[in-house]
Amino acid sequence: MSIPSESDFELLRSARWRDLRELADRHGVRVRGLKRKDEVAAILLASPAADDIVREMEVRAGRGAAADWARDRLAATRDVIREAADLGAAVGAAEDAWKAAGKSLEERDLSRAEAELGRASRLATEARERRIREIDEALSAVEDHITAARKVGADMAGAEDLWVRARSAVSEREYVAAGELIKQAERAAMQGQQRQIEQAIQLRESQIERARSIIASCEPLLQEAESYDLNVADVRTLLRQARDVLAKGDYLAGLTFARNAEEAAYRLASQVEEERARRGIVRPARGLCGVCGSDHLTFYEDGWGTCTDCRSEFRWRDPLGIRERLRGLLGT
User: How many helices (H) and strands (E) does the chain have?
Assistant: First the structure.
């Protein structure tokens, strides 16, 4: 047993009575009847378990190696989230988990802080991977759009140059630059099509289909959230706006509204995840792709999954039925 220092004494003397009594009881040190903290601290430091008592109190006070590690990981996880956000990924759920970790750390609950940091890191990584897939798919979609626009006589020289630069950026894994170049290429292609809009119906329909696909992809998550009685009013409003704009034929604004709705829907993912955990719902470990039959599947926490062979996406978690909802409400 090491010799207690003055800082050890001050650590215990400044602690809460509840913490002092809990540590005393845990290590079999009798402090009942003592009215002053300095007396309790002296007895605890004189006990054979003094080293363990000081170490445990450091953790509770947010000091020592464990607390330092948690703070370092909090900063590192924030960097991971920012990296994903720079790619344009939807990181709302990861940010919520990171904030919860910071709050737990302030409350000296290192165990919960560690769990929330793990969840934040996982959600940020999944958001980043999802964004990279979107960039790859967008690169192919813009190429198709440029080809279709060129067939109806639109000038695509500027858009083609941007697309080539975007493809090079993707090959070099410069996804931030690639995402911006793809947006510019898409914008340049759309501007070139304005003069040929009547002949570019095929391109217009493909954009509308993309917006409708985004809207449709939000629906399973919203239905599951509603089955847990979560508030989805804001997301429903954004989806309604997207549908209304699409109905008027403004596919550019419709796609923008659809993407806004998608971002808002992803923010519900953390709440849905908590409800699944409360009801004992876990994501599957294996399965077969309904498109190609492959067993190379990845299941994400937000209820989505992908096949690495055919790249198809699917929902592994459907909304709850009436029976499950009643069980959840009754806590059974």
Answer: 14, 3
Q: What is the pTM of this model?
A: 0.46
Which two three-digit tokens encode residue 286? 């294996």
- For residue range 258-281, what is the model confidence (pLDDT) as tens digits? 988 888 888 887 788 788 788 877
Nearest to 183 by CA among 208, 156, 153, 163: 163
Place of tokens 């979609």: 141
What's the number of domains the chain is made of?
2
> Within a domain: residue 159?
no
Q: Give residue-wise pLDDT tens across range 290-312.
A: 889 999 898 876 677 899 999 88
Q: What is the pLDDT of residues 75-101, one digit of tens each?
A: 999 999 998 888 888 889 999 999 998
| Residue 206 phi, psi dihedral angles, 5° rounding | -65, -35
- Minimal CA–CA distance to 27: which of 37, 40, 36, 16? 40
CA angle 300, 306, 310 (to 5 degrees): 170
Give residue 66's pLDDT.
Answer: 64
What is the extent of the structural domain holding 210?
Answer: 200-278
